[in-house]
Design a protein that fits this description.
The protein is α+β, with helices and mostly antiparallel strands. The protein contains 6 helices and 4 strands.
Length: about 170
């Protein structure tokens, strides 16, 4: 299963790099690329994790620090791959930076299952970062499962915000 996931991720990365396009269900694009409240908008963040010089497209992608997932899935969407690519470039160009990938799940499923799902989501993001040149020593993976919800509620609007990986930068 892990080997198959790795192969699927690699094929997806190469497809993205080759400029392949993909379609998603209507509305998924907006949901999967929603920016976190911590928007940096390309400003000099110093030790906050952003390079000091970047073009606006990269700054927009880097301001998005949350990757959202579909129900019961650790598949990274094409829109999220663009965000991850910008973070990969930032991390590979700034060896002093590191990132913690926090995996999360919604409340459905057992506690153990949701911790594993959150970990798989974080590992999927890590794999894409590594394939794009980020040193593994710059990346830490942790899963909170359903324990730290971004939204409280028992409906799809809350659950969709809780199925995520958060990228938390640190460094000097």
């Amino acid at each position: 299963m892990k080997k198959q996931l790795g192969i699927v991720l690699l094929v997806g990365v190469f497809g993205l790099l080759a400029g392949c396009s993909s379609t998603t269900k209507e509305g998924d694009a907006a949901k999967n690329t929603t920016a976190s409240a911590d928007s940096t908008q390309g400003m000099d963040m110093g030790s906050g994790g952003m390079a000091t010089e970047m073009h606006s497209g990269q700054a927009d992608a880097l301001s998005k620090r949350v990757i959202y997932f579909e129900f019961d899935s650790s598949d990274v969407t094409p829109e999220a791959r663009e965000i991850i690519a910008a973070h990969a470039q930032n991390l590979s160009q700034n060896a002093n930076l590191s990132v913690v990938l926090e995996g999360h799940a919604d409340e459905r499923g057992t506690r153990e299952y949701n911790v594993a799902l959150g970990e798989n989501r974080a590992k999927a993001v890590k794999q894409l970062l590594v394939v794009q040149g980020v040193n593994t020593s710059q990346i830490q993976v942790i899963s909170f499962g359903e324990e730290r919800p971004a939204a409280v509620g028992h409906d799809e609007s809350a659950w969709s915000l809780n199925r995520r990986v958060e990228l938390l930068y640190s460094g000097s």
